[in-house]
Amino acid sequence: MGWFEWLLQLAVVLLLAVALPLVVRLERALAAVRRDRAALEGSAGNLTEATRLAEAASIRLRAAAEGGGRQLSERLAAVEPLRDDLRYLVERAEGLADRLEALVRAARPLAQDPPEPAPPAEAGRSQAERALLRALRAGR
Questions:
Q1: DSSP, residue by residue, the chain
Q2: Which of 51, 62, 81, 133 is most buried as measured by Cβ atoms within 10 A of its Cβ?
Q3: Contact 122, 130 (CB under 8 A)
């Protein structure tokens, strides 16, 4: 073997010595990837299950929202005539209130005149009571 062969073998030994720690580090990284692969596959199964559950919940939520919308529209349809009736009653009540207010304003000046005094015995009695008393007195 010549000196050239010795140099080549020395270079190969040096390259192997440098590559050996790299190979050890690479082997450890590959072992970690293999361990994580099992966890990743389990997580993928969990993710698939979670996706399926979310889709089912979404379908139930959509059905509930549609049912609520139908109920709301049915109730609104049932309440619509009542709303119209109430609007009509409010309009009539406003008219009556205006008329009543006008009558009260017109009656205020009349209320300021002093009322005629009632006879003392019949002061707190209604017209029917007074008529009854007259009839009883006439019958004696």
A1: --HHHHHHHHHHHHHHHHHHHHHHHHHHHHHHHHHHHHHHHHHHHHHHHHHHHHHHHHHHHHHHHHHHHHHHHHHHHHHHHHHHHHHHHHHHHHHHHHHHHHHHHHHHHHHTSPPPPPPGGGTT--HHHHHHHHHHHHT-
A2: 133
A3: yes
d(CA 27, CA 140): 134
Residue with tokens 């596959």: 41
CB 133 within 8 Å of CB 122: yes
Question: Taking Cα atoms as reference points, which of 91, 94, 114, 90 lies closest to residue 102?
Answer: 94
Residues ≥6 apart with Cβ < 8 Å to 122: 129, 130, 133
Residue 129 is which amino acid? E
Burial of 139 (0-12, 13-18, 19+ CB in 10 A): exposed
